[in-house]
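Please describe what follows:
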Amino acid sequence: MTDAAYKKIVVAVDGSATSDLALTEAIRVAGPGDAEVLALYVVDNGQILFDAGYYDPTPVLQALADSGERALAKAAQRLAAQGVRHQTRLVRQQTVAGDIAGSVNEVVSDWGADLIVIGTHGRRGVRRLVLGSVAESVLRQASVPVLLVRGKAMEA
C-alpha cells in the first residue's frame, strides 16, 4: 500500500517546452509515492474546421495525430527513465470540436485521476485574448486539483 497523496496523475503534453516542464513536475509528484501517470495528448481539431469550401482535412488531422504520437513517445521515454508507472493516451476526436479542456477533463474523470498537471504558456494581453488558455479552461472545469506549471511569460 502506498501513502502517496496522489495515486493517478494526468499530465497534458503537447511537445512544447512548457509541457516538458509540466511532465517534470508530474514525475516529481509521482515519484515518492509510486503514483501512476497518464500522459495525455489531445489533437486540436478545432483549428481546421473552418468554412473554406471543400477540402479534405484528413492529411492535416493525421499530421496532428503523428505529432501527438511523437510527444507521447517522448513523454513515455522520460517517465520510464525515471521509473514512473505510466500510460499514454491520444485523443483524436473531442466530444465538442476544439474543446481540448473538455476532453482533458473527460479523460481525467473516465480514468479516475486525482490530479491534473498542465503547463501554462504565460500569454498576456491580446495574445491571451485571441489564443485563449487551455490551462485556464481545464482549471475552470476540473473536478480534481490542478497543478499549473508556468512556462516562460510572453508579452502581448
The chain is about 45% helix and 20% strand. The first strand starts at residue 8 and ends at 12.
